[in-house]
């Protein structure tokens, strides 16, 4: 049931416990208790909203930064990752295989703000060896959902 | 001038769906729960394969019966999913949707005056196609209390010396009814005993919920007297590609192929290439879509029952078939008033046969958000008329 609930709310967190109970053949109480268990266990970590900020009249810049770091003895990459993700402007941090170690996604109001974060906060860290900053020009799809086009139902209204 | 028209064709009534479609099209910003096709787009990898075939310049006819690769994949698929064994050669024919297969199966099998049993409510083409093929349609009126399954007694009552073919369509459009092995066994014995042939329209075979589809062709003695019709429209959300197929005994398929050859040549080549990809790599897509339909199905059944509207639980296709007799309106009155007053389009059960009176076909090939808005309006409507 846990997986069924997660699959259902993965793309639509607006579904209520009552809706889920009907759709998954369960009871509202059971759904509520499973969800709260998963919240406690930090399986469900939050309920953010997917927003296409390009359509809103406010400046926002997203950058993807490739970071090479020196792992620390006994702690590996976790400690340095934590030092980085604690910054409020950092949206995501992933440990990578391949040519660099961490992917850091940053959001700022302006390019200058992002640049100063990289040059003043990120690059000077002891463990950080190098950074390569890529600015995002346009977002097409996020969290499995296309951001760019609104899809209209083009089917005929009544068909056999 | 002489009358240019065939009496037979003129005598055929246009489908009830058409009539209702014309009313709905007039209505501005109506929301519809009236479609008989998936709301999903064809999965991208399938579309991409179609595009690739065009880029490669595969724009020629295929052999009449269809691409060899596609026929091989169809047979593998039927074995894998339903345990049916057919040969790609001689026993498999790729058609322009399931609808063509229905038409040519009837034309290949009927002599003038042969009776064809058509359990209703059902898809709109069986009746007219039977007439066009020179047969005589004999309607069996299925009953709500049997959850619209065909029973042995009803079948026996309808059989005469002239009965040759029965058209079975489970999972069913419009009722959503399914028939499991035991249900089929009852009628299968009669079919063998009375020496009938079956056209089994299994286009919704992938869309069953909490149970697996059983093809009547898999029952003892039925393989040699059954044409199984299936296709890509519903399972892979490929309605516009017009791709279906028929499998059955070589004796019949060969004659169907002859009609197909002269009337159609071959199914669209682009669609056939896309179809190969669908069968090879599309199982996960089917699962994903089925899972979404199942949630909506539960949502709708619950919603109608909460309104105090009788609604048996359908285990197949993507329709619920609630009974609105308690409101003292005919299906058509209900559907017309609902459209006028709340701007929601549903299809009256009578569009699928007279015995659909008192019922509505509600499609759940819509997003949950859409269904919620529609249900709110229907609820308001029902409340208004219940209190009268």
TrEMBL record, chain A:
Sequence ranges assigned to domain Transcription regulator AsnC/Lrp ligand binding in this UniProt record: 65-138
Classification via Pfam families: AsnC_trans_reg
InterPro entries associated with the record: Dimeric_a/b-barrel, HTH-Siroheme_Decarb, Tscrpt_reg_AsnC-like, Tscrpt_reg_AsnC/Lrp_C, WH-like_DNA-bd_sf, WH_DNA-bd_sf
PANTHER family recorded: HTH-TYPE TRANSCRIPTIONAL REGULATOR PTR2, TRANSCRIPTIONAL REGULATOR, ASNC FAMILY
SUPFAM superfamilies: Dimeric alpha+beta barrel, Winged helix' DNA-binding domain
The name this protein goes by in its record: Lrp/AsnC family transcriptional regulator
TrEMBL record, chain B:
Cofactor: pyridoxal 5'-phosphate
Pfam families, A to Z: Aminotran_1_2
Gene3D superfamilies: Aspartate Aminotransferase, domain 1, Type I PLP-dependent aspartate aminotransferase-like (Major domain)
The Aminotransferase class I/classII large domain, residue ranges: 29-378
Database matches in SUPFAM superfamilies: PLP-dependent transferases
Keywords for the protein's UniProt record, in alphabetical order: Aminotransferase, Pyridoxal phosphate, Transferase
Taxonomic superkingdom: Bacteria
Ranges annotated as spanning the membrane: none
PROSITE patterns per the UniProt record, alphabetical: AA_TRANSFER_CLASS_1
EC code: 2.6.1.-
GO MF annotations, alphabetized: pyridoxal phosphate binding; transaminase activity
GO BP terms: amino acid metabolic process
Family, per entry: Belongs to the class-I pyridoxal-phosphate-dependent aminotransferase family.
Protein name per UniProt: Aminotransferase
Record organism: Mobilitalea sibirica
UniProt lineage: Bacteria, Bacillati, Bacillota, Clostridia, Lachnospirales
């Amino acid at each position: 049931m846990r997986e069924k609930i997660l699959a259902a709310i993965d793309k639509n967190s607006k579904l209520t416990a009552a809706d889920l109970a009907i759709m998954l053949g369960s009871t509202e109480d059971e759904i509520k208790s499973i969800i709260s268990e998963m919240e406690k266990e930090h399986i469900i970590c939050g309920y953010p909203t997917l927003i296409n900020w390009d359509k809103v009249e406010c400046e926002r810049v997203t950058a993807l930064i490739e970071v090479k770091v020196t792992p620390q003895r006994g702690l590996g990459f976790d400690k340095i990752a934590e030092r980085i993700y604690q910054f409020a402007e950092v949206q995501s941090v992933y440990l990578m295989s391949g040519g660099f170690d961490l992917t850091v996604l940053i959001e700022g109001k302006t390019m200058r703000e992002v640049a100063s974060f990289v040059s003043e906060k990120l690059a000077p860290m002891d463990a950080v060896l190098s950074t390569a900053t890529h600015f995002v020009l346009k977002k097409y799809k996020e969290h499995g959902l296309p951001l760019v086009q609104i899809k209209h139902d083009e089917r005929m209204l009544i068909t056999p | 001038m002489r009358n240019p028209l065939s009496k037979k064709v003129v005598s055929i009534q246009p489908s009830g769906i058409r009539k209702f479609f014309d009313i709905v099209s007039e209505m501005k910003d109506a929301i519809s729960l009236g479609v008989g096709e998936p709301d999903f787009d064809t999965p991208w990898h399938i579309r991409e394969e179609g595009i690739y075939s065009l880029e490669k310049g595969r724009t020629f006819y295929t052999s009449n019966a269809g691409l060899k690769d596609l026929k091989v994949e169809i047979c593998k698929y039927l074995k894998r999913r339903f345990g049916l064994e057919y040969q790609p050669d001689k026993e498999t024919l790729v058609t322009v949707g399931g609808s063509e297969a229905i038409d040519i199966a009837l034309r290949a099998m009927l002599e003038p005056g042969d009776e064809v049993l058509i359990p209703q409510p059902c898809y709109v083409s069986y009746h007219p196609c039977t007439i066009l093929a020179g047969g005589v349609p004999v309607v069996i009126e299925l009953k709500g209390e049997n959850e619209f399954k065909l029973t042995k007694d009803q079948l026996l009552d309808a059989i005469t010396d002239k009965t040759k073919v029965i058209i079975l369509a489970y999972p069913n459009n419009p009722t959503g009814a399914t028939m499991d092995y035991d249900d089929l066994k009852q009628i299968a014995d009669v079919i063998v005993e009375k020496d009938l042939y079956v056209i089994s329209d299994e286009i919704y075979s992938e869309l069953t919920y909490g149970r697996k589809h059983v093809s009547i062709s898999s029952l003892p003695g039925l393989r040699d007297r059954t044409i199984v019709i299936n296709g890509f429209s519903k399972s892979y959300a490929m309605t516009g590609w017009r791709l279906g197929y028929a499998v059955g005994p070589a004796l019949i398929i060969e004659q169907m192929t002859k009609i197909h050859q002269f009337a159609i040549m071959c199914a669209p080549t682009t669609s056939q290439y896309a179809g190969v990809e669908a069968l090879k790599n599309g199982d996960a897509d089917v699962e994903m879509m089925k899972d979404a339909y199942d949630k909506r199905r539960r949502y709708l059944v619950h919603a109608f029952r909460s309104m105090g509207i009788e609604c048996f639980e359908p285990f197949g296709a993507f329709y619920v078939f609630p009974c609105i007799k308690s409101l003292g309106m005919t299906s058509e009155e209900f559907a017309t008033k609902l459209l006028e007053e709340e701007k929601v389009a549903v299809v009256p059960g009578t569009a699928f046969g007279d015995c659909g009176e008192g019922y509505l076909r509600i499609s759940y090939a819509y997003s949950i958000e859409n269904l919620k808005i529609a249900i709110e309006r229907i609820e308001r409507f029902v409340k208004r008329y219940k209190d009268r």
